[in-house]
Amino acid sequence: MRDLRIPDQRHPEKAHRPDQEQPKKPAWIRVKAPTSEGYKRTRDIMKDNRLSTVCEEAGCPNVGECWSQGHATMMIMGEICTRGCTFCNVATGKPNALDVFEPGRVAHAVQKLGLKHVVITSVDRDDLDDGGADHFAQTIRAIRHRSPDSTIEVLVPDFLKSKPGSVEIVVEARPDVFNHNLETVPALYPTVRPGARYFHSLRLLQKVKELDPAMFTKSGIMVGLGEDRGSVLQVMDDMRAADIDFMTIGQYLQPTPKHHRVDRFVTPEEFAGYEKAAYGKGFLMVSATPLTRSSYHAGDDFARLRDARLRKLGRA
């Protein structure tokens, strides 16, 4: 049996890659180790319900802050991904069979944590005919049943190898926010996200709007992978052409020496410039800071997103 704590077993596809230098993090990136009672309570609830979180699996720097407030992004369909993106710390390999009781356990954890807004994500499951779309839908429905007042955000895979109709399955379950990350600029896809296709991901988000124009859509990228400002601005234009409501931009952090190198640390001032540019292009909501991640402050951001739409419609 694989031990996912051992790097070569966690990332067999990266085991023979040369080590990449890991530059020292600047002061604006450093965070304190998690120690609060709220963090421990959230950790215990996840453990008791046998749930995985992307916070742990992807090594998110915000885990201490978010978990101390009872906010955790639950990762369904196991902890082993069928893809091997060079930026990602989630384990790669052949996943286990789906757990049919997982949606109920997720719903129980959401209720126990008292979440007003919950984010559900997953590994890529290219081994499943629908890419796990029905499992997402079941999880959404289970949360609605146990916590009808909670708003739900899903961060889905690209369903690139799934049968037709997979996206529709998730949309029909009516999450409040449909999120799928483009991750980087198109020129870097062959080295950063080799199993994915930029325009397929963009089209997926556009299709959600066609299926349900009222559903909020969201996407994000990392910077510091080797892109330039012009290519980031082009991604903004592509997202707006697909009618995406909410864009996130955060600093890429290298999980291990075997992962894609950090090209540079983008300054807070540059992030502020990206935020200003994105709002100028018409996004309802933008989060652009070094520590921004897809689900960072997701609940507060959802409230602001909803208010922004009401203002745009003249109903505030």
UniProtKB/TrEMBL annotation:
Residues spanning the membrane: none
Cofactor: [4Fe-4S] cluster
Gene3D superfamilies: Aldolase class I
Catalytic activity: [[Fe-S] cluster scaffold protein carrying a second [4Fe-4S](2+) cluster] + N(6)-octanoyl-L-lysyl-[protein] + 2 oxidized [2Fe-2S]-[ferredoxin] + 2 S-adenosyl-L-methionine + 4 H(+) = [[Fe-S] cluster scaffold protein] + N(6)-[(R)-dihydrolipoyl]-L-lysyl-[protein] + 4 Fe(3+) + 2 hydrogen sulfide + 2 5'-deoxyadenosine + 2 L-methionine + 2 reduced [2Fe-2S]-[ferredoxin]
Positions with a binding annotation for [4Fe-4S] cluster 1: C55, C60, C66, S295
Cofactor binding note of this UniProt entry: Binds 2 [4Fe-4S] clusters per subunit. One cluster is coordinated with 3 cysteines and an exchangeable S-adenosyl-L-methionine.
Record's keyword terms, sorted: 4Fe-4S, Cytoplasm, Iron, Iron-sulfur, Metal-binding, S-adenosyl-L-methionine, Transferase
EC primary class: transferase
Compositional bias segments (type: Basic and acidic residues): 1-24
Binding site residues for [4Fe-4S] cluster 2: C81, C85, C88
Domain Radical SAM core: 67-284
Keyword Ion transport among record annotations: no
Pathway: Protein modification; protein lipoylation via endogenous pathway; protein N(6)-(lipoyl)lysine from octanoyl-[acyl-carrier-protein]: step 2/2
Highest rank taxon of the organism: Bacteria
Protein name in the entry: Lipoyl synthase
Originating organism: Paracoccus acridae
Phylogenetic classification of the source organism: Bacteria, Pseudomonadati, Pseudomonadota, Alphaproteobacteria, Rhodobacterales
This protein's encoding gene: lipA
